[in-house]
Specification:
By secondary structure, the chain is an alpha/beta fold. The chain has 13 helices and 10 strands. It has 2 domains: about 1-85 and about 185-285, Periplasmic binding protein-like II (D-Maltodextrin-Binding Protein, domain 2); about 90-180, 3-Layer(aba) Sandwich (D-Maltodextrin-Binding Protein, domain 2). It is about 40% helix and about 15% strand. The strands form 2 sheets. The protein has a 5-stranded mixed sheet. A 5-stranded mixed sheet has the order 7-6-8-5-9. The longest helix is centred in the C-terminal third of the chain and has 19 residues, at about 200-220. It starts with a strand and ends in an 18-residue tail after the last helix.
């Protein structure tokens, strides 16, 4: 059985199509096995792929733009979409009706990853909120943000599932808004690999397995998916995991074909240009290839 080495830039129920490829048995049916881990701190997917240390990485098309802007042309390519919407949520202290304008004058513990923060700023602005009137706080890592909110810091917190659903289950917070509903569809996260790997038979078998897994997580009962994935989320109640998966299904994060659509790619460029993260557009053909 061929073994693939898979890394994710972060671990979340948002990436269930990739997790389910392993947890749902889809890889095994293609005669494949896989190791799964989170990208180590300080490492980059492009360097690990270049050095042959990993086969497939969950990333985003935007991860290529910074290096391309600096003249780097030896980069991995993105071959399959995972999510076509932002997968972050805002949780507040109270379950009262939420309006985006409530963020003005409030304190928000925001994920300061490059793409999450750019998308948050864009979504907030799309909702007519003055970004400079929101008290944005960098509380550290994903775990540190969660701990800070649980300790009483901030009015709102910006997280991927299942963290907001677990806050609700623990009676600490209330999910009040989905970023994916506040802005257009976008090429948020995707799978990246080297061109050399994508020319191999294991790559083609992976794509068959991934295509089936993504359709399964889009259409199956959230509870069924959560039970299959529960081993990947130790300490997370299956009810919270299922609630996160159900919300992502409702948002339509996993809709459409696995190929990365040009309109979604261009929307991601629009977001990054509007926030001053990049200074020019990068052609899709330099970043994206069709699934093998």
């Amino acid at each position: 059985m061929d073994r693939l080495r898979i890394l994710v830039s972060r671990h979340s129920a948002f990436y269930s199509p990739l997790i389910a490829t392993i947890a749902g048995g889809f890889l095994a049916r293609e005669g494949l096995d896989a190791t799964y881990g989170v990208l180590p701190a300080g490492a980059t997917s492009r360097d690990l792929i270049r050095r042959g240390r990993v086969d497939i990485v969950q990333s985003a098309v935007s991860s290529n733009w910074g290096p391309m802007g600096s003249g780097d042309i030896d980069l991995p390519v993105h071959f399959a979409q995972i999510n076509c919407r932002d997968g972050f949520f805002l949780s507040g202290r109270r379950p009262d009706p939420f309006a985006w304008q409530k963020l003005e004058g409030a304190t928000l513990l925001a994920d300061h990853g490059g793409q999450p923060l750019a998308m948050l700023r864009y979504a907030v602005q799309q909702q007519g909120v003055e970004w400079n009137r929101v008290g944005i706080v960098d509380a550290g890592t994903v775990d540190e943000m969660d701990a800070a909110f649980r300790a009483g810091r901030g009015d709102y917190v910006h997280q991927q599932g299942p963290a907001p659903q677990q806050l609700e289950q623990d009676g600490v917070g209330h999910l009040v808004a989905a970023l994916g509903e506040a802005m257009p569809e976008v090429a948020f996260s995707s799978l990246t690999a080297s061109r050399a790997f994508l020319a191999t038979d294991p790559a083609r078998r992976f794509v068959r397995a991934y295509t089936q897994a993504r359709e399964w997580v889009r259409t199956a009962a959230a509870e069924e998916i959560a039970r299959a994935e529960t081993g990947f989320f130790p300490g997370v109640p299956v009810e919270a995991l299922a609630a996160a998966i159900a919300r992502y299904q409702k948002l339509g994060c996993w809709n459409g074909e696995i190929g990365i659509r040009k309109d979604l790619y261009e929307q991601a460029l629009d977001v990054f240009l509007s926030q001053g993260v990049i200074g020019r557009r990068f052609p899709i053909e330099d970043v994206v290839v069709d699934p093998p």
